[in-house]
Amino acid sequence: MLSIGSIVLTVEDIGRAGDFWREALGYVNRSEPSEDWVILDPPGKAHWAAPGASLALSVTGYPQHYPPRIHLDLYAEDQAAEIERLLALGAREVDWDHYPEGADWVVLEDTEGNRFCVVQTGPYPQP
């Protein structure tokens, strides 16, 4: 049976991207990063096959594609607070006009232009 081990994001600056995603997710380096590769694991993940998807960052030199064909959905019980925190870490808001009425997600991008959504999972705000 297959399972997702790592999700790989293409980046231009491995240090900047690593700093962002370690702070955003609370992940840690699996081992010392190289110039073009690092794998970030959930804290306490003792073995590569342990539960919990890892996030790998890869400098490939390929240009980003817009819109991207894959993105992360990050779940948040307090979406507004998480968005504020992520913006302070260097995330950027994406000017995206395709939200349906009542959307429970907001599209952001990381320091390298990789898009992700912050999805409200906790109590929904009252109108």
UniProtKB/TrEMBL annotation:
InterPro entries documented for this protein: Glyas_Bleomycin-R_OHBP_Dase, Glyoxalase_6, VOC_core
Stretches assigned to the VOC domain: 3-121
PROSITE patterns documented for this protein: VOC
Pfam (any one): Glyoxalase_6
Stored PANTHER family: CONSERVED PROTEIN, HYPOTHETICAL FUSION PROTEIN
Protein known as: VOC family protein
Source organism (scientific name): Microbacterium helvum
Taxon lineage: Bacteria, Bacillati, Actinomycetota, Actinomycetes, Micrococcales
